[in-house]
Each structure stands twice: as structure tokens, then as C-alpha cells.
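Q: What structure does this chain adopt?
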Amino acid sequence: MMISNITDQPVIEAERCVLRPLRLSDKGLIELYASDERVAMNTTRVPHPLPPGSTEAFIARCLSPNRSEDVWAMDATKSGGGELKGLISLERVDDAQCEIGYWVAPAFWNTGVASRAVTALLAANPLKCRTCFAAVFQDNAASARVLTNCGFEYLGDAETFSVARNAKVATWTYSRNFG
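A:
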């Protein structure tokens, strides 16, 4: 299967990093970081342990012209950092709504990379959404702080299934409206 590195996603400038579309060469770092149990346990879709071939399948979905979600690498090479510190995504919910998701490699936790990436992605609003939603596990207060610091408002409690935890997990749900 031939996969192209060309997508119609914009490159988005952020403070001390660039949000760029994924490329095939990201496989190694995505696999390394997503294989970390601490990352997987804070996501809904990353399994733990990470099965062989899942990273390639994920990148193929991200590069597909028929995707429903745009995924960017948090690339800090412009400021002398790593070429992939984490991933951030926008999934289309409908024509005017999207859901943001992100994870950061543990080596970069508490460095502000998630806040800078969320701020830049919301400012660019590449899907031209009127409303952006987000949900975080209730045992992940750091991600909740990122959202509230970026202007998201708490909507309520819910739950969702986590593949890595193989269980339903309590979440806090947030939204942010654009102009």
C-alpha cells in the first residue's frame, strides 16, 4: 500500500513549536511514546500494550484524504527541541463542531507544550468550527487545567471507554465557542 506524505492540513505555528501533519518518518517516535503505559492510560483509543502494525495503520488513517480527524505532530525542532513531543487532533463532529484531543510524551509533561499546542490550534481553527469540545479522564487533572487555561468551559461529567484500561472511565467534558 502506497501512502503519501502529502495532506491538505495546514502547518500551524505555535510558541516554540510547529504543529505539522504527520509523516511516515514519525512512526518510531509515535510508537515509542504511545507504547508508554502512562500515555495509553490517558487516552481512549491507544491500546496497551501497543499491537504490532497499529502505528502504521494509525499513520495511514491520518494521511488518508477521506479521514474524519486531522492529526498534527507537536514538532519543536525550530526551537532546538524534539521533532515529536506529542500529538494533537481535531475530529469533525459535524459541519460546525469538532473535538480536540492530545497527548504529550511523559518526558515533556509539565513543560507547557500541550497548552501552547492547544492555544495555537484553537487560534488557527483550521476546520472553521463554531464549537470545540473536549473530554479528559477525571484522574488527569493536568489535561483539565490545559483546557480551562485555554478558555474551555466545564459542561459536566460523563464517561467513555478506554481501550488501554479496558473499562469505562469517568470524564469531565468541556466546550469552547468561537466568536
